[in-house]
Predict the structure.
Amino acid sequence: METLLAVLILAVGLTLVLRSFGSSLDALKNSAEYTRGLALVEARLWELEAKGSVAPGTSTGQFAEEDRDFRWEVKASELGDLGLCETQVTVSWAQRGRPRAISVVTYLKRE
């Protein structure tokens, strides 16, 4: 009886440990995708800053090669007579069929 109880406790303990490893791997993948999304937002912002100015409006696109699962969107809206546009850069992707996105807002010179 004692042996059966020890095996039962060991089985339950191992199940919990294996489940926690699975959860940790999911969290690691989720973190890696958000980190990649943030790096892509930063890269898109650098491209816009290198251009020197942004036109008001919305533009979208998809990244190439290994980042083809990620899409970008740039929304620029004028800020009156200041000569600036409030620019929101959003990178989105799907994770397990659920949409995910990360956005950054900055101010760039209007074209």
